[in-house]
Amino acid sequence: MNVAVFVKASLDPNMLRVDSSGKILVEDIPLAISEYDRNAVEEAIRIKEKHGGKVVAFSVLTWGPLQKRVREAEQVLREALAMGADEAYLLVDEALIPGNPYTTAEALAAMVRKVGQFDLYLTGEGSMDTLSFQVAARLGEALGIPAVSYARAIEVADGKARVTRDLEEHLETVEVSLPAVISVTGEINKPRLPTLLQIRRAFAKPLNKLSLADVGYTPPSGVVEIRDLKLLAVSRKNIMVEGSSLEEIASKLVDLLVKEGIVK
How far is CA 254 from CA 44, 156, 250, 264, in A? Predict the structure, then answer.
């Protein structure tokens, strides 16, 4: 059971940097492995431990400047290798910066076709910076295979995957023939913490860097143009609800919620 797992070197939302106008200072924010992708890596390793095979991690650098970010992207993949992935591939090219879901998915598809065929392709449900939730579906389309989203449980047997999907109001179980792309939620598992020895061993595992020319993909121009990124400022109304009893306070609170349209 050979598994391809996709990880993104995302802008770390815990380390946001903004100027006085609210503009996000992208170049000053460090990159980190996207949290949902960490769940995807863990699930890939668990499947390998149960069924054998190998896990290969893939990533596309989507944030610049390129020369500054390459080492950070490599560190993200080293983390996947330390968790238990067997090898990794990083696609680095100025034409993919800044990234967007379409060109990222197409580039990832070109990467895996260059490396080889896999039985299963795992992604996180969304990256922790842009949260587009599109890459898994677009990747399935680019590879010409089924895509299943929001998996909180995966069982693999007899060339099929039985997937429990976490929808807004209920769980749904579907069965899909392999190969397939599956995106996972944060509830699917608890990612392992690599030991110091595993971290050191990760540097002995192959981490291959590729360009668009290596994988034979030329992204179209003008798909998405990012002009600026700004922090959304949220202001609170700071309404104080007072009363002589809990019942009075509760009644006033309900009236306010109805007035605001939160409760009908």
Answer: 47, 49, 6, 10
